[in-house]
Amino acid sequence: MVEITIHKFKDMDVEGATVVDGFPTVGLVSTIAANYLIGKLKLDQISALDSPEFPSVSMVYANKPKFPARIYADEETKVVVFLSEFTPPPFLARALAKIVLDWSIKHKCRRIIIPEGISTEKPETEELEVYGVGSSDRARADMKKYHITQLETGIITGVAGVLLNEGRRTNFDVISLLAEVKPGMPDARAAAKIIEVIDKLIPSIKIDVEPLYKEAGRIENYLRVLREKSKPAAEPELTPQMYG
């Protein structure tokens, strides 16, 4: 059984909040989106996640050491972000999903949103789409309200797949947002598209994604280079934070 511990650094009232799961997936969409939300909304770190199964590293930002998996939040906007700077191996999926769901229920959060990438072979000239999958009637109604195309058939794997199943079992609102991405490369444009959808789903925030579109090439190259450097050093791969 995988043991994951949450170290609490700060108390914060997040009742009714939307929780964003930022564990890395295809195209690093979740990582880029999570980092951008943390930076733009100026979220505070409130907790860290730790486990013997996590990489033995300390991420240093602004002269401070940080655990490779953390929780950020803001009381005013009611947004919580789980951020991981390593790609969880498959055997951690169930344990991580349980931690996110149990934490969200314990703190009386409203729902969980999972940014995901879905590989596509569409040409670059063709508009890429964002699809949604909801665990409950409420989640599906929210997506319908904001004209989010709902995925009719498919397979969702990893932490997102477990969260969707557990959300249905417990009647907790979970929404997986799937942006089409080019396989094998970080995709900041896809992350920007998902943030636009998140912005609609959370009325308490207003996020300008233009800077992300403009910096997409630089961000994608930055992540690509650093992930390549991290591969020989440790498994699972580290995904460096972009916004301090």
Question: What do these coordinates show?
Answer:
- The protein has a 9-stranded mixed β-sheet, with helices on both faces. A two-stranded antiparallel ribbon has the order 4-5.
- It has 244 residues and is an alpha/beta fold.
- The chain has one domain: Rossmann fold.
- Helix 1 crosses helix 5 and helix 2 packs across helix 4.
Comma- or semicolon-separated keywords:
Rossmann fold; alpha/beta; 244 residues; 34% helix
Give the end-to-end Cα distance, rounded to a whole number of Å: 33 Å
- Fraction of residues in helices? 25-40%
Uncertain parts: 232-240
Q: Give the tally of structural domains.
A: 1
Structural class comes to alpha/beta
Q: Please identify, by name, the CATH architecture.
A: 3-Layer(aba) Sandwich
Quick structural overview:
By secondary structure, the chain is α/β, with parallel strands linked by helices.
List the helices and strands and how they pair.
Layout (H helix, E strand, L loop, with lengths): L4 E4 L9 E5 L6 H13 L2 E7 L8 E3 L2 E3 L2 E6 L4 E6 L8 H14 L4 E9 L10 E5 L2 H9 L3 E2 L7 H13 L2 E9 L6 H14 L8 H5 L1 H15 L14
Parallel strand pairs: 2-7, 2-8, 8-11, 9-10
Antiparallel strand pairs: 1-3, 3-6, 4-5, 6-7, 9-11
Helix pairs in contact: 1-5, 2-4
